[in-house]
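lol forgot to send this yesterday, sorry. struct tokens for the thing we talked abt
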């Protein structure tokens, strides 16, 4: 079996051969059956390859454009938690391919280490420790004492117990964040008084609003958490983004934790991981809608978006803006701007791609327009001298 597979190295991709080896061992194929199967795979592989000169960009665009018209414009909500929602369908696909840094519904799927995945109480505690907690969530009532020009915070002791926060932690967090205020701890309440003497009443109102957003504990950026059961094990769904800090937590299984924010992945794990995230997210959106697009089209778009080492969207400021041809750039958006800029620096257009040749009504350098006819001249035979 090993010798037969070795014969096909170079003729078939390594991944295909590895998959065949595993399947052949599982089915216990003999030498003859293995050779027949490899010949059939080789034939299918040849058929699946793109022809030289094929307009793969246009085919890929059409392959996404047609299913895209059938997609719904919906957002999926997790039952009982309005904040944990995921954009799906066409809006999510547009978000991905535009490479937007701020996405509508950032979501993380946090996997835990084996010792934590079975116990529901443990998972709830870990989820509570991950969620970003602010002062506003620990306070029952904010009020302004106009006579004394101070802000009174009536603490919610039950919530504080649930979050595992003490009054001392709250006071310390407020002291670190707000420097221009005097803080007094009365046990069940905290009193704040501004140190700024001009417009004291207005400053007191500002102080009241500012103290609500002071960060106390948890992972900054994670606004909501939801422990859910997936295949017998517990995982935590988290609304928000901060992959770096989440991966640093000791209870987290870093190798399986994912996020739908491609820039979050790029910042922490690099461009290859970001490329794979684009592929996974696009594939998931299409499959969730019950549609089918060949994986190679998705891989091609992901490659185009990431081949410079940075994530570039399919926008006028992304990959379209980086095209060499000024006519190709002008055909997409803002034509006057591109043409004026090119005129000012005397840009040269070599007419290498499709759109500029279509504009000039000449054969495009693709398909039958790709090859040139070249004659091969036979060398002249020298006449023998008598």
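and heres what i got for the seq, position by position
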């Amino acid at each position: 079996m090993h010798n037969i597979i070795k014969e096909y190295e170079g003729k078939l991709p390594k991944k295909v051969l590895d998959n065949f080896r595993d399947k052949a061992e599982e089915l216990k194929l003999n030498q003859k059956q293995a050779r027949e199967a490899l010949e059939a795979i080789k034939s299918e592989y040849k058929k699946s390859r793109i022809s030289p000169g094929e307009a793969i960009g246009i085919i890929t665009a059409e392959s996404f454009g047609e299913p895209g018209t059938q997609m719904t414009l919906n957002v999926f909500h997790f039952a009982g938690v309005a904040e944990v929602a995921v954009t799906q369908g066409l809006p999510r696909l547009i978000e991905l391919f535009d490479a937007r840094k701020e996405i509508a519904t950032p979501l993380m799927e946090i996997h835990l280490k084996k010792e934590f995945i079975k116990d529901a109480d443990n998972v709830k505690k870990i989820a509570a420790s991950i969620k970003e907690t602010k002062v506003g969530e620990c306070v029952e009532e904010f009020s302004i004492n106009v006579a004394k020009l101070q802000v009174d915070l009536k603490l919610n002791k039950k919530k504080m117990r649930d979050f595992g926060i003490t009054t001392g932690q709250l006071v310390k967090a407020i002291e670190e964040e707000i420097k221009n205020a005097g803080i007094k701890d009365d046990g069940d309440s905290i009193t704040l008084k501004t140190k700024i003497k001009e417009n004291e009443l207005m400053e007191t109102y500002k102080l009241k609003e500012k103290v609500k957003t002071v960060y106390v504990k948890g992972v900054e950026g994670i606004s909501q958490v939801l422990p859910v059961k997936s295949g017998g094990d517990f995982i935590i769904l988290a609304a928000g983004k901060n992959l770096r800090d989440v991966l640093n937590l000791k209870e987290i299984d870093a190798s399986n934790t994912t996020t739908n924010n491609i820039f979050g992945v790029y910042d922490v794990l690099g461009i290859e991981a970001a490329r794979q995230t684009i592929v996974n997210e696009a594939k998931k959106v299409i499959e969730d809608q019950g549609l089918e697009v060949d994986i190679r089209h998705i891989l091609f778009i992901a490659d185009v978006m990431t081949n410079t080492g940075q994530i570039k969207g399919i926008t006028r400021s992304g990959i379209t803006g980086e095209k060499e041809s000024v006519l190709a750039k002008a055909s997409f958006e803002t034509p006057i701007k591109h043409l004026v800029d090119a005129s000012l620096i005397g840009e040269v257009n070599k007419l290498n791609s499709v759109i500029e040749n279509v504009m000039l009504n000449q054969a495009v350098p693709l398909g039958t327009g790709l090859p040139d006819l070249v004659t091969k001249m036979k060398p002249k035979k020298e006449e023998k001298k008598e």
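The chain has a mean pLDDT of 83. anyway ping me if u want another try
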